Amino acid sequence: MHTTEQVIAQTKKWITDVVIGCNFCPFAAREVKRNSVNYIVEESNDIATCLHTFIQECVRMDNDAATETSFIIYPNAFENFEDYLDLVSLAETLLERQDYEGIYQAASFHPQYSFQDAATDDAANYTNRSIYPMLHILREESVETALDHYADPEDIPERNIKFAREKGVAYMKLLRDSCL
After folding, report:
1. Which of 40, 54, 87, 120 stands the most exposed, by the fewest C-beta atoms within 10 Å?
2. Could you tell me if 95 and 51 are in contact, meaning their C-beta atoms sit under 8 angstroms apart?
3. pLDDT above 90: percentage of residues in the chain
4. What are phi and psi of 82, to 5 degrees?
5. What is the DSSP string of 12-60?
6. pLDDT of 102-161, one tens digit each?
């Protein structure tokens, strides 16, 4: 059994060691240093409750400019990647229906993450393989601003894939798993 504090600490370690350490997101370090990242642990495995938590975090961020980005972590739900993809799709639909399209976007991370055209054992999948299923809420305006100040932002995904493949599955898995 885990505690909320453990899940958040493990997630912070994953962000520091994997996301920032591998430079998968060149903008993450700044927000971590600024302490502008919020973490929510949703213990429920009920999809309606999980989606409610997601949209409530968007509402909370509307009223809290100091929170730049937020991770909603689901340690007890969406173990199956296909079930998780259903959550992602529903969350994106919810953003549209609640008039948040263009304001927030959801990034997806899952322990079994697999890109559509990639083999399950492709090291590239570790660019999005987290220690828990989670949704990452980003402010679209901030993403656009950050991308404007970054040379060749369209190359970020390919650079990440190249890095992960060069390091290999064993390295990427060990790095991620060391966060638990």
Report:
1. 120
2. no
3. 91
4. -65, -40
5. HHHIIIIIITTTSSTTHHHHHHTT-EEEEE-----HHHHHHHHHHHHHH
6. 999 999 999 999 999 899 999 999 999 999 999 999 999 999 988 888 888 889 999 999
The per-residue pLDDT for range 68-92, each reduced to its tens digit, is 999 999 999 999 999 999 999 999 9
Token digits of residue 92: 């994106």
**Torsion sign across C-alpha atoms 31, 36, 42, 46:** negative
Length of the chain: 180
pTM of this prediction?
A: 0.96
CA 176 to chain centre: 14
Residue with tokens 């399209």: 101
Q: What is the DSSP string of 96-107?
A: HHTT-BTTEEEE
Q: If residue 67 lies in a helix (H) or strand (E), which one and from where to where? A: none
Furthest-apart CA pair in the chain: how many Å?
44
